[in-house]
Structures are given as C-alpha cells and as structure tokens.
Amino acid sequence: MNKIKYGLIGASGKMGKEIISLMNENENELVFKYDIDGESFSEKPEVLIDFSLPAVLGKTIEYALKFKSPLIIGTTGFNEVQLKQIREFSEKIPVVQSYNFSVGMQMLIQSAVLLKEKLTDWDIEISEIHHRFKKDKPSGTAIMIKNALGREVNISSLRLGNVAGEHSVSFGGLGETLTITHSALSRRTFAEGVLRAVKFIVDKEKGFYTIKDVLDKEQ
Ligand SMILES: NC(=O)c1ccc[n+]([C@@H]2O[C@H](COP(=O)([O-])OP(=O)(O)OC[C@H]3O[C@@H](n4cnc5c(N)ncnc54)[C@H](O)[C@@H]3O)[C@@H](O)[C@H]2O)c1
Q: Ligand 1, atom 34: nearest CA belongs to which residue?
C-alpha cells in the first residue's frame, strides 16, 4: 500500500507518540498534528486520528469536516451525547471508533459472550487495572465488554503504577470459578490496531465502524 498521509490529534500524548513511532516505521507521513501547544499543518491528511480527551471532540469533528478526512477515534470517556454526536457525524464522514484497538481484546469479548451463553446461572464480574494517569474510570474497554455481555455486570477498577491495561471477566458457579484475562503489555498493541484501521478506512465512504469491522474485513 502507498504511503498514507495522516493527521493526529493528541500528538504529544502517550498514545500519540506510540502511533507516530509505528506510522513512521511503516513509512506513513504525519502531515497535521494538534495538541494543547497548538497545531502544525503541511498538507491535508487522508486520515485523521484522535487519541486525546473527550473535551477535544468538537475540535476533532471540526478538523475532520474541514479536511474531509475519514476519522479514527480512540479517545475514551465520552458521554452519551458525545457518542450520539460521533454516530451522527459518521453519516457524513467514515468513522472507526473503539475503546480498545487491540486484537486480543476482541478475542476476550467473543470468548466472554460464548461463556455467558453456556454458564447461564453463573455470576459475572469485570475487573480492570490501568496506570495511575488514566482519567476515566471505569475504563471504556470495561464498558465495551459489559455492553457486549448485554446484562448488568459489576465493574471493579484499580489504578496502579504504569499498567498499560488489564481486563478480566470472571465467572462464578457454586464450587468453581473461571476467569479470562487480557493484558496489554505495551501501548504498541493499540497503535497496531490503529494502523489496521487506517488501512481499512482510507478509501471508505461515510459510515460507522468499529475495530471488529476492521478485523472481520481482514479475515
Ligand atoms: N482505544 C484504545 O485502544 C485506547 C488505548 C489507550 C488509550 N486510549 C485513550 O486514548 C486517550 C489518550 O490516552 P493517552 O494515554 O495518550 O493520554 P495522554 O494524557 O498521554 O495524552 C492525551 C493528549 O491529549 C492532549 N490534550 C488534552 N487536552 C487537549 C486539548 N484541549 N486540546 C488539544 N490537546 C489536548 C494532551 O496534551 C495529551 O498530549 C485517552 O482517552 C485514553 O483512555 C484508548
């Protein structure tokens, strides 16, 4: 695939730096970036990526409309109004939005849904651990798992050191428990999912997609 010219919102953040590093390795070109210290622009991006904060959403949408660029949103912690805004925006511009861009997380969700269907009278609990700097609680991923399970499930959150992200779904019957865990060992796994999403969305028309659509398309 040809070199892709991309823009990045939240470019100075932990995920922003990880994305720049992986996109560089793959010879894609950063042509627009935006963070609290301002913007820098050299060319119109073919794809715009946002890993920042929910408060930045209005600005992100403004830029995506200005550039007419497909948008990838990894930011977590949006409220219901903002989530609706993203859906409505995808009627004009293609959007990939996911609270977790790792491949393994999709496997955890599929496995958890399967177990829920088999273990009908077992208790289910979700737990998540993240680094001390994480702003939202519970994590967007834990909410995504809960939504996939489609029932009321308690979520426990721990904020510890520099853990990149760990999510477990535990099932309990009378006499036994079963836990499945996904650990992100570094932020690179999320950046790799973003790169896959970039390749997926660059030539799409309008529409709302998730990382599941990206991975399903690859199979
Ligand atoms: N979807 C995923 O797979 C995934 C994975 C990891 C993190 N995240 C989410 O991505 C987001 C960023 O995570 P991070 O770890 O890089 O955080 P971070 O705090 O390191 O980076 C956020 C960046 O946004 C910038 N920013 C904040 N307010 C701004 C404003 N008003 N205008 C412009 N820029 C602003 C900050 O300066 C910072 O550079 C968080 O919401 C996090 O939960 C998602």
A: 35
Mean pLDDT (whole number) for 17-39 = 97
DSSP 54: G
Into how many domains does the chain fold? Answer: 2
Predicted TM-score (pTM) of this structure: 0.93
Distance CA 82, CA 64 (A): 15
pLDDT attached to residue 90: 97
Query: Is there an atom of ligand 1 within 6 Å of 76 CB?
Result: yes
Whether 182 is catalytic: no
**pLDDT at res. 1:** 65
Assign residue 45 the CATH number of its domain: 3.40.50.720
Q: Which of 59, 134, 199, 204 is catalytic?
A: 134
Distance 54 CA to ligand 1 centre (A): 9
The domain in which residue 133 lies consists of: 103-183
Residue 47's H or E segment, with its range, is strand 47-50
Catalytic annotation on 134?
Answer: yes
Task: Please work out whether the CB of residue 51 comes within 6 Å of at least one atom of ligand 1.
Answer: yes
CATH number of the domain enclosing 143:
3.30.360.10
8 Å CB contact between 188 and 195: no
